[in-house]
Amino acid sequence: MIKLLDNYVETGAIILFGVGFATMLINSNLIKKIIGMNIMDTAIFLFFIAKGYIPGKEAPLVVGDYKGVEAYINPIPTSLMLTGIVVAVSMTAFLLALTVKINEKYGTIELDEILKGGRDESR
């Protein structure tokens, strides 16, 4: 239990990932599934950024005197997460556009109704 409290950021990331995964599994609404996927993305970004942080070291920005390689954190995890954020935003925009097209074709964004062939027009 103490390990969980010491690593509270990682624990929070895992809980957040579970919330996003449950959101994707439980809901049949496509928008809610996209939101769940975004929560999972955020959890992964939080986890990797927390792992990239090293207490006592500075961000790799040289201001003033150069302190040596050991004084700065590795910038690669942070830059990879920035790339991941850009990819996640692009993927969200694509999925929302796809959801709009699905709504135009089937008249609904509920996955259950789409699998049945679309909204019943006789209602």
From TrEMBL:
Cellular component annotations (GO), alphabetically ordered: membrane
Organism superkingdom: Bacteria
Transmembrane segments: 12-31, 38-56, 76-98
Gene3D superfamilies on file: 1.10.287.3510
Localization annotation: Membrane
Pfam families linked: Oxidored_q2
Entries under InterPro entries matching the protein: CPA3_antiporter_subunitC, NUOK/Mnh_C1-like
Membrane-related topology note: Multi-pass membrane protein
Location (main, coarse): membrane
Alphabetically ordered keywords of this record: Membrane, Transmembrane, Transmembrane helix
Family, similarity comment: Belongs to the CPA3 antiporters (TC 2.A.63) subunit C family.
Name this polypeptide is given: Na(+)/H(+) antiporter subunit C1
Originating organism: Andreesenia angusta
Phylogenetic placement of the source organism: Bacteria, Bacillati, Bacillota, Tissierellia, Tissierellales
